[in-house]
Every structure is written in C-alpha cells, then in structure tokens.
Amino acid sequence: MLGLITGFWVSQIVRTAAALSVADHLSGRSMTAPEIAAAEASDPAATFRLLRACTALNLVTYDQDSGQFAGTALLDTLRRESPLSLRNMALVQTAPAHWLSWGRFTDSVRAGATQIEAAVGSDLWAYFEKNPEEGQLFGAAMTDLSTPVILEAAEVIDTSDVELVADIGGANGAFVHELLVRNPKLRGIVFDLPTTLPGAQVGAERLGLEDRASTMAGDFFQSVPAANLYLLKYILHDWDDASCVHILRNVREAMAPGARVVIVEMLVGETADPGIGTLMDMNMLALASGKERDLHEFDALLEAAGLRRSAVNSLQPPYCVIEAIAA
C-alpha cells in the first residue's frame, strides 16, 4: 500500500531522469554523477542522489569501484531514439495539464466530470493551444505510445480494395503513413486541426510519401472529407457519448459507397476482470469528457450514428481494432 501511495514519487523521478537525458548519456557507456551533472548543468550531489534512487528502481546500476552508473534495458525506454521510447510520455504525464488535473481527481469523482478547467483554466485542447510546447510534447507522447499498436493494427486492416484513406484527427499521420508504406497504390489524407499538420507533412516527406499523402485542416465536429476508409485512432475515448455520435455521424455522411470505418481504442473487459484500460479510463475522467468503453458501448455509439460493427480484432491487450460499415 505504501508503494501505491507514493507512486507519484516514482513518476517525478522518472520524469527528471528523462529531462536530464540520463538514458541518452548512458547509452553504450558508463558515467559518474558529476559527469552527467556537468553535461546537464544540474547539481552534482542532487544528481548523484537521483541516480542512486534510479538504482533502486532498476533504471541504472552502480559500480562502487569506479563510481560510475550504467543504464539498464528499462532505462533505454527513456532514450530519445529508442524504437520503444516512452520519454515523451514520462515528460507529458508529469507536466502541468496532467499533473494539476490529477491533483483534483477526488473532485472529478464527486462531480462525475473532469476538473481540468479548475486546474489549468481551460479544457485540455484549449490549454494545448495556449501552451504549444506542451501540446507538441503530448502529440509526440501519443505517437510513441501508438507505434507498437499501429504496427499491429496495420497487419489486420485490409486496404487491398481501398483508394483513399482518411486519418481523422491523425496528428502527425503515423497510422496512415504505415498503411501507405504497405500498399503502394493507396493514397491518404491526414485530417486535423491546422496546428498539428506540419508534423504530418514532415513525416510524409521523411518516408518519401509526399506524392500520395496529403493533409487537410478541419474540425471533425463540422465535417470530414470523403474517403473509402476512415481511421479513428484514440479519438473517441477523448469525448462523451453525444460528441462521439456527432463525430461518427459526420463520418457516416461523408463515406463513399462501400466505405469502412476503423476504430482503434482500448477495450474495457468485464467488470470482474476489466484490465488495464480502467486506469486509462481514470486518466480520461481526470482530463477530458471522454472515457474508455467496452464493446457493447462502442456498438451503441455506432448504431446511433447509422453504422454497424462488421469486425473486431484484438491486439496487444487492452487494444483492439473495430471495423464498421453503413447500417
């Protein structure tokens, strides 16, 4: 229980290790605390204490004779260039929007609604508009968290008969770009708010997809572009049921004949064994109007929007791919 109570200590230790680039400094070599402190302009004694705590968390090991610290495989997930990097996640989860909102979590439960406006003065998305650096960090963290899921989802999504795929709320376009890499005949659109689209353009150019990948600025509460396949990854969990139905109805209205909708989300299991998705559900209660849902709840949203589920594929728990077509 004491470990559970003091869990936020660990969050801030990990954040500081990420902020001081400890994983990058210790990538392939060992260093002393003063050496890392000199590179990061941090206090040497405090840096040693931090690294000693990281030893207790199995992030680093310590050699008594040399006074040097070495990174572990666990620490490597905080390295910037790691294929499994969670560095941005460590930073954004302890940044003001998340941290201050979680400080009011008891109030969220009592009220049945997020208290983020009381915590930071606006809803999450408006806050990110006013604090673009934190917003970009959030986007990068979501991309890092998405990467393994995107690779799995791309394996089960059939695009053989698709001409145009639209990634709704697609941020930097990682999902649609993966599908385009796998299918050289496919064209794709990243549809999102204007502030997020430069990253999608850079991503397409980096992969040599600029001839087949485009961007379109817009608001999915207003309308979405016509396409043969729609991607909604980690979108619906941000919104309440009425908002989700609104988004899905806009998709339904824009769908070309025979089009499909692909939803990638966490899936909450039965109450007796609900899975880790329930923790993300608490994060949504702290930060947004949305929630994590079970399959029956997704079916209800689809039905209300004039769609019906046509397939569901399980990915690494608790993620899944839900496919839907016009009802």
How many helices? The count is 17
Most strands sheet: 7 strands, mixed
Overall pLDDT:
95
Main sheet strand line-up: 6-5-4-7-8-10-9
Task: State which percent range the strand residues make up.
Answer: 15-25%
Structural class by sheet pairing and helices: alpha/beta
Q: How widely separated are the two ends?
A: 49 Å
Low-pLDDT regions: none
How would you describe the shape?
globular
In a nutshell, what does this entry contain?
The chain is 48% helix and 17% strand. The chain has 327 residues and is α/β, with parallel strands linked by helices.
Feature tags:
327 residues, alpha/beta, three-stranded antiparallel beta sheet, 17 helices, seven-stranded mixed beta sheet
Q: Could you explain how this protein is built, in words?
A:
Helix 4 crosses helix 5 and helix 12 (132-156) packs parallel to helix 13. Strands 6-5-4-7-8-10-9 form a 7-stranded mixed beta sheet, sandwiched between helices. Strands 1-3-2 form a 3-stranded antiparallel beta sheet. It has 17 helices and 10 strands. The radius of gyration is 21 Å and the shape is globular. It is 48% helix and 17% strand. The mean pLDDT is 95. Strand 2 (60-63) and strand 3 (68-71) form a beta hairpin. The longest helix has 25 residues, at 132-156. It is α/β, with parallel strands linked by helices and 327 residues long.
